[in-house]
Specification:
With about 160 residues, the protein is an alpha/beta fold. It has 4 helices and 8 strands. The protein has helices at about 15-30, 65, 100-120, 150-155; strands at about 5-10, 40-45, 50-55, 55, 90-95, 125-135, 140, 145. It has a 4-stranded mixed beta sheet with strand order 2-1-5-6. α1 (about 15-30) packs antiparallel against α3. The two termini are about 15 Å apart.
Length: about 160
């Protein structure tokens, strides 16, 4: 634990993906104090036509304007001409429910900025979802996190 999934547009090279995995693991190890061998990262790349926000498809030529719509009726938007959209990202972090809010707040902020760096998504197009679960709902190597010897037993080959 945790299991980190990045959903994004195809924009990263193989080397960038490797570096994102390394840096996301390092960030998680440092901030959440989790040993590296329990951190898994998965990257899903989806074409623009598979993304949408505020009722607009990312494949639309005016996606930047429409995806920043704050009023459906008037179509008011907070978009500015200098705010392009070169990427979007949704990062889901499945993790045990053992962290205080301050720790999660810092982690979300730092993970957001790391994700922006690699996906080129603007701040308003990075969504971080933390899904917490009790350790007993997490299993690896046939043992759940509720087991007092989880770390050693989950490392069985």
């Amino acid at each position: 634990m945790p299991f980190i999934v990045l959903n994004t547009w195809p924009a990263m090279s193989k080397d960038m993906k490797k570096e994102f995995i390394r840096q996301a693991t390092e960030l998680t190890t440092n901030e959440l104090k989790i040993v590296p061998d329990k951190i898994q990262v998965l990257i899903h790349e989806l074409e623009k036509e598979n993304w949408g926000k505020a009722g607009a498809s990312a494949a639309d030529h005016d996606f930047a304007l429409k995806s920043r719509r704050i009023d459906w009726g008037t179509e008011e938007s907070y978009h500015t001409d200098d705010s392009e959209i070169n990427g979007m990202a949704v990062v889901t972090v499945d993790i045990w429910n053992t962290f205080d809010q301050g720790t999660k707040d810092k982690y979300v902020n730092d993970l957001t900025h790391l994700t922006m760096k690699f996906t080129r998504a603007p701040l308003d197009k990075v969504l971080i979802l933390i899904r917490e679960m009790v350790p007993g709902n997490w299993g690896q190597s046939g043992v759940t996190g509720a087991n007092k010897d989880f770390l050693s037993k989950s490392r069985q080959l």
